[in-house]
Write a structure and sequence with these properties.
It is built from nine helices and eight strands. The protein is globular, with a radius of gyration of 16 Å. About 50% of the residues lie in helices and about 20% in strands. Bound molecules: 2'-deoxycytidine-5'-monophosphate.
Length: about 220
């Protein structure tokens, strides 16, 4: 496997993209980029400054201005914004509630796509996870996967991890899918040449083996 390999992994929240993506990156010996963390980092910076996440110009300006480092450290995404480690904060309720609005901002998206291409070029390839990776960011990726699972299964997995009520979590997952799939700019869609991997009835190991089988 040459090191300039780019593997695009798209799909809805909670389908297992991160776990699967990291396992594949490790097995292939390439880097891993969590692009959702970048949209979350911009959202954090916006909220920190007291800016309305729907203020298109202001939010877009912040996306261009901040210093942003997203790295994978020991299997977890580490996010540093303007010198501050915000890896925990970007997963919190406030950021999660506002990130769809920020991710729908075309100025933000253009800036994130530019940064994603530059990071992956610097690293000489990577497994890249997001919503628009195969369709927009790396249309020429060596392998494009659309990793998905039913909303129910995704809700059950999340509740097993962090607790909560399955019906409520399922409803919020359906709502986030709806927002991500219906926005005007780069909605969550299967790229025409991507391979759909439904993880609903499979273990992570089975999914990883299946994908590695596609590459060999
Ligand atoms: O994967 P995640 O839940 O951390 O993503 C956070 C948000 O960012 C989610 O609303 C989808 C959006 N996103 C996006 O629009 N494009 C990407 N490439 C990655 C994430």
């Amino acid at each position: 496997m040459v090191t300039s390999t780019v593997i695009a992994i798209d799909g809805p929240a909670g389908a297992g993209k991160s776990t699967v993506g990291r396992a594949i990156a490790r097995r292939l010996g390439v880097g891993y980029l969590d692009t959702g963390a970048m949209y979350r980092a911009v959202t954090f910076a916006v909220l920190r400054r007291g800016i309305d996440p729907h203020d298109i110009d202001h939010v877009s300006e912040i996306a261009s201005k901040i210093e942003l480092d997203v790295t994978d450290v020991a299997g977890a995404t580490e996010v540093v914004v303007d010198g501050e480690d915000v890896s925990i904060e970007i997963r919190g309720r406030a950021v999660t509630g506002a990130v769809s609005a920020v991710a729908a901002n075309s100025g933000v998206r253009a800036e994130m796509v530019r940064r994603q291409r530059s990071v992956v070029k610097e690293q000489g390839g990577a497994v890249v996870e997001g919503r628009d990776i195969g369709s927009v960011v790396f249309p020429d990726a060596d392998l494009k996967l659309f990793v998905t699972a039913s909303a129910r299964v995704r809700a059950e997995r999340r509740v097993a991890e962090i607790g909560g009520d399955v019906d409520e979590v399922e409803a919020s997952i359906i709502e986030r899918d709806r927002k991500d799939s219906s926005r005007a700019d780069s909605p969550l869609v299967e790229a025409s040449d991507s391979t759909v991997v439904d993880t609903s009835g499979l273990s992570i190991q089975e999914v990883v083996d299946h994908i590695l089988g596609m590459l060999s």
